[in-house]
Amino acid sequence: MIWDELDSELGALEHAGLRRTRRTLERPCGPEAQSGGRRLISFCSNDYLGLASDPRLIEAACAGARAWGVGSGASHLVSGHLGAHAELEAKLATFTGFARALLFSTGYMANLGVVPSLVGRNDAVFSDRLNHASLIDSVLLARAENQRYPHADLAALEGLLAASRARRKLILTDAVFSMDGDLAPLPELLELAERFDAWLVVDDAHGFGVLGPQGRGSVAHFALPATRRLVYMGTLGKAAGVAGAFVAGDATVIEWLVQHARTYIFTTASSPILACALTASLDLIAGADARREHLQRLVSELREGLGDTRWRLQPSPTAIQPVIIGDNHETLRIADALFERGLWVPAIRPPTVPRGTARLRVSLSAAHQAEHVARLVDALRDLA
Ligand SMILES: *Cc1c(COP(=O)(O)O)cnc(C)c1O
Questions:
Q1: How far away, in angstroms, is 242 Cα from ligand 1 center?
Q2: Which of 101, 168, 287, 328 has its CA at 20 to 30 Å from residue 57's CA atom?
Q3: How many Å lie between the centroid of ligand 1 and the Cα of residue 232?
Q4: Residue 231 Cα, ligand 1 centroid: separation in angstroms?
Q5: What stretches of the chain show up as alpha helix (H) in DSSP?
Q6: Per-residue pLDDT tens for 76-112?
Q7: What's the burial of 70, exposed, middle or buried (CB within 10 Å: 0-12/13-18/19+)?
Q8: Which is the catalytic residue, given 206, 221, 294, 372?
Q9: Residue nearest to atom 7 of ligand 1 (CA)
Q10: Catalytic (active site) residue 206
C-alpha cells in the first residue's frame, strides 16, 4: 500500500537520527521558554533584538486591528493593498536606502517570487553552496541552470561566470549564512555582478535589523551603493519580531516584480495587523543600538567561553554561533544533555546542513542576559 512506504521511510529517518519533532511552547517567544511544564533557557529563536513579545509591538498590533481589521480580504493587485501595507513599504524603502520596496507574506515566498521573475530557461543562477533552502527552491522554480559554487569561493564563482554562455546571469546568496553565521563577501560579489552583467540577489534574513548602522542590514554594513543590479530581500519574522518579508531595489525592478512575481500576485495580502506592528518595529530597530551592542557582547562572551574546547567554533561574527559536532546521534545526545540542564539548543542535521556537519546552532538574542550565556558556556565546557 502506498502508506506502507511512508511508515518505513519515517522509521528510517528515526534510525538515522534525522526524525524531527516539535515542542509546544507554553509561553510567548523569549529567552525563557516553557514546554511540558519545564522552564528552559532558549537559544533557538531568530528574535535577535527581543522584539517578538515587545509590549509596544503588541500595542501597535492591537491598534492596527482596530484601525484596519484583521484581514486584508484580497490579493494586493485586487483590493487587498491597504494603507497599512503602503505605509510599511514606503518606510522599508527609506530605511534600506532603495528606491522602492515590496512586501511579501514570508521570506520563503519572497525568494520564490524574485528569482523566477528575473531568470528562466536559458538563464543561469550562480548560487553559494550553503544557500538557504528557499533560495535553492527558487532556482528550481525558475527552471534556470543552477551553477553552485563552493561556499564564498570568489575565484570559483568568477570561473563559472566567465565560462557561462547563459543569456542572463544571476548571483544568489545569503548575506548571513543561516546555519554558519558568517557573512557573504558582498562587495566582491557586487563587483563580479558588475563585471559579468549579472543580477545580485541578496537574502538578508539574518542581517536585517542586526547589522549595519541602525540595523539597516548587510548592504548598509558593507556601505554598498543601491545600484540597479542589486536586489535586496529582508525578512520581518526574525530581528523585526513579527512576520513577513520584503524585496527592495530599483523602482523598475520592483515594478517588474509587481507584474511578474507569482508569490506576490496569487496570494492574499498579509494581515494589516502585521503591517502595523512592523511599521512600529522599524522605529524600534532604528533606535536599538544598545540592544545590538549588548548582543555583540554576548557573542564575544560565548566565543571566549568556548574558545579552548574541542568543539570547533565557526568564524562567525553574528548572533548565529554553530558548534559543529559532526555525527547526527552525538549531536542529539549533547542537545538532550543540555536540555536536561534546562538549556534548549537546537540540533541541526542534514539535509539542513551538509552530511557529517550536524551541529548545535546557538542563536543569541539581545533579550538574553549575560548569565544565560554563562550557564550555556559552563554546561558545554562540562560536556566537552
Ligand atoms: C528564515 C529564512 C528565510 C525564510 O524566511 P521566512 O520569512 O521565515 O519564510 C529565507 N532565507 C533565509 C536565509 C532564512 O534564514
A1: 13
A2: 101
A3: 13
A4: 16
A5: 2-15, 55-68, 83-96, 107-118, 133-142, 154-163, 186-195, 218-221, 251-260, 262-265, 272-286, 289-306, 328-340, 370-383
A6: 999 999 999 999 999 999 999 999 999 999 999 999 9
A7: exposed
A8: 206
A9: 107
A10: yes
Dihedral Cα 298, 211, 177, 203, nearest 10 deg: 150
With 0-12 / 13-18 / 19 or more C-beta atoms within 10 angstroms meaning exposed / middle / buried, residue 241 is buried
User: Do 34 and 25 meet the contact criterion of CB atoms below 8 Å apart?
Assistant: yes
Closest ligand 1 atom, residue 237 Cα: 7
Q: Which of 178, 204, 235, 318 to mutate to test the pocket of ligand 1 (most atoms within 8 A of CB)?
A: 235
Mean pLDDT, range 37-63, rounded to an integer: 98
- Model confidence pLDDT, tens digit, residues 185-222: 999 999 999 999 999 999 999 999 999 999 999 999 99
The answer to whether 238 is a known catalytic residue is yes
- pTM for this predicted structure: 0.96
In this structure, which residue's CA is closest to atom 8 in ligand 1? Answer: 107
Cβ atoms of 114 and 201 closer than 8 Å: yes
Asked about 221 being catalytic, the answer comes back as no
Local confidence band at 1 (pLDDT 50, 70, 90 cut-offs):
confident
- Indicate which residue's Cα is closest to atom 4 of ligand 1: 107
The C-alpha cell at 303 is 566565543
Q: What is the pLDDT of residues 266-322, one digit of tens each?
A: 999 999 999 999 999 999 999 999 999 999 999 999 999 998 888 877 889 999 999
